[in-house]
Amino acid sequence: MLRSKYSGAFSIIIIAISIIMVGFGYIIARDTLFMVENIRSQFDVDIFILTTAGSDDIAVFDKKLRRMNEIDRVIYISPEIAAEKFKKEFGEDILDILDYNPLPPSFTISLKPIYRNLMSVEAIANILQRDSVVDEVKYRKNFLIILEKYQRIILVCVLIVFAFLTLISIILTSNSIKMTIFARRDIILTMKLIGATNRFVKTPFVIEGTLEGGLGALLAGLIIYGIIYVQNTYLQSFFNYTLIVSYQYYIGLLLLGSFLGWIGSRQAIRRFL
Amino acid sequence: MISFINATCSFRKNAGVKNLNFSIDDGEFVFLTGPSGAGKSTLLRLIYMDLFPEKGKVLIRDYDSGKIKDRQIPFLRRKVGMIFQDFQLLKDRNVYQNVAISLYASHYKIREIKSRVYDILNQVGLGHRVHHKPTELSGGEQQRVAIARALVKEPIVLLADEPTGNLDPRVSIELMNLLHKINKKGTAVIVATHNYSLIKRVPGARLIQMNDGEIASIT
């Protein structure tokens, strides 16, 4: 019984370590992708309007932009607002320099997330460019090219790391449960000799494996909660990073641990039946 | 009840049995003797279908080694009691639990389990050791727990593989007397042993001598 208790505790610790790896793997993957998406969300397209365009033409174009499904947000920047922005950015009033305001009216549009890629942006820019009131459509093409290139690399790296951690955790969990069951193979053999059906032999081990998985996940959840608490309370200003996880995340860990315990014990006991 | 028909089984190199042809009737007492490696344990394992003959077949009542399905084996083993030299008791459970587990596995009701276990433990003289762990018992007592576990499900045959191998001569004789008593109540008993002195303790028992996996003589 003592041996069983020790091997059970060992299994729970190994499962907890595995779940912590998967848990943090998930957070790293999620936050990396979120960061990339956040950078992408800052991507805007500027549409400069011909200075000859009348206010009615601009209003019609404004409506056209707002009707476009691809566009998430439209901001109209009149020449006066543009002049104010110029003053804020450069510290000098453009009217003092040139005696007139040469800045054209413009629109700054944000695209919906799925259209924030080079192909879509080029297509939308071409459509807009053809409008009679539009002078020029400008966007940071190089920014998109670099972002798309690195996003793929980041996505692949994140997926590899996450898959690797998950694989390691499955192997660790499965092996620790196997060891627990192997330590009690004499019980299994005896049970088989006295006429116990496979199901009768298997059920207690599977229940135990599932519980060990759940307890391991609970322990992992507590440790992750503690690490997140320390990070957000004491280290947040140092790393300028706030870790946010929902209660669903902890439920997910609990289910994952129980599932790993269940599947691991089923696989392990099969060898002895 | 038990028939070996041209049964050959060689599960390991230089180990196994060849062309076994004999039968054992209900209520018989049979000794299997022969040197180590003669095939005694293999023969017993063929009876409880831990091994299967690659040639011929073994019949135990309605169970045919050639036709039995995996899911039927537990039901056969409920009719075959087994005891071993190393007792094979569960060390983390007490005497009562070690015996009762046999009935739990056969889905008996709790009340019936209780009465049967106490009854059988009294029969083997362990009524006072119910709550002891196997490690707190002598070798003879542990073997009697194993016998109780085998008998509690009322098997048609009790197989004993070198049951006295770990016991001193006095306890071995006591054990043999117990097996004889069990046999007199109608349960067939097959004992594999190379302790010839024990054979004399059971008058009228059949003796099957084995050598190199074959039956040398049946008397």
Percentage of residues in strands of chain B: 25-35%
Mean of all residue-level pLDDT scores of chain B: 89
According to DSSP, the number of beta strands of chain A is: 4
Poorly predicted runs of 5 or more residues of chain A: none
End-to-end distance of chain B, in Å? 19 Å
Q: What is the number of helical segments of chain B per DSSP (H or I, 4+ residues)? A: 7
- Tell me about the biggest sheet of chain A? 4 strands, antiparallel
Low-pLDDT windows of residues of chain B: none
Shape of chain A: elongated
Structural category of chain A is: alpha+beta
Coarse structural class of chain B: alpha/beta
Strand order of the largest sheet of chain A: 2-3-1-4
Tell me, rounded to a whole number, the average pLDDT of chain A.
87
What's the story with the biggest beta sheet of chain B? 6 strands, mixed
The largest beta-sheet of chain B arranges its strands as: 6-7-8-3-9-10
C-alpha termini separation of chain A: 22 Å
Element-by-element helix/strand order of chain A: HEHEHHEHEHHHH
Helix content of chain B: 25-40%
Q: What fraction strand of chain A?
A: 5-15%
Instruction: Calculate Rg of chain B over CA atoms.
Output: 17 Å
List the helices and strands and how they pair.
The complex is a heterodimer of chains A (273) and B (219).
Chain A: H1 2-41, E1 45-49, H2 55-67, E2 71-77, H3 79-90, H4 94-98, E3 106-111, H5 118-129, E4 134-138, H6 141-182, H7 185-193, H8 198-239, H9 247-270
Antiparallel strand pairs in A: 1-3, 1-4, 2-3
Chain B: E1 2-12, E2 15-24, E3 29-33, H1 40-47, E4 55-60, E5 63-64, H2 73-77, E6 80-84, H3 95-104, H4 110-123, H5 139-151, E7 157-161, H6 169-184, E8 188-192, H7 196-199, E9 206-211, E10 214-218
Parallel strand pairs in B: 3-8, 3-9, 6-7, 7-8
Antiparallel strand pairs in B: 1-2, 1-4, 4-5, 9-10
Helix pairs in contact in B: 3-4, 3-5, 4-5
